[in-house]
Automatic annotation (TrEMBL):
Transmembrane stretches, start-end: none
Domain Thioredoxin: 34-207
This protein's record includes keyword Aminoacyl-tRNA synthetase: no
Key words of the record: Signal
InterPro entries in the record: Redoxin, Thioredoxin-like_sf, Thioredoxin_domain, Thioredoxin_ResA/DsbE_sf
Name of protein: Redoxin family protein
Signal peptide: 1-27
Entry annotated with the keyword Kinase: no
Any Pfam family matching the protein: Redoxin
Organism: Amygdalobacter nucleatus
Molecular function terms, GO-annotated: oxidoreductase activity
Amino acid sequence: MHKFSKRSLTYILTAALLLTSACSAKSKDIQTLASSTDKAQTETNESVASETGTEASKARIKLIDALKLKDAKGAEFDKGTLSGKSVLVTFWTTWCQYCKDELASLNKIAADYKQNDKFQILLVNVTNSNSTVEMATNYLKENAIDLPIAFISQDDASELGIPGFPFNLVLNQEGNLTKLVVGDKSTQYFFGATEEQLRNFIKQVAEA
């Protein structure tokens, strides 16, 4: 299994990242590894360019391997259930209203793809004292959200360079990162997107 460095993961995610107005971390524990300044974005792009064909490109091989996911019981999440599928991975927390709005829309949309064995929506709850495994599972149950869920620690999420929530990325059938869906209102897909916008985006991913 390829070992991913914090540096290469950050470059990969921030290279395509248009910074968001989403629910941002309020504590120092979740560090935004991407900067909102033009200078930092330029430095990131230059760093990615300088690593073409080396560390950055190798890390693209299997981003799914870098996600340290657990199930609700704390055991390693079975990534084999995602094999051969395009996967929309949504990182969320229970304290983020943007996340809750998006989950409600995704739950409706997912019903259209239950028979599609080549596409999967995976919810990844970022756990800390304000968003525990129990809180996340209870929220899904109380709101009848029928989507698979995995968990990642706050520290491991930080290493991926996640700047705010919800944070979405798309993995293709080989487990490679193909899209980031993070943006603010200057992008095509932004937080506060309508259900129709989300539906159209997912259609593109699922039918690719």
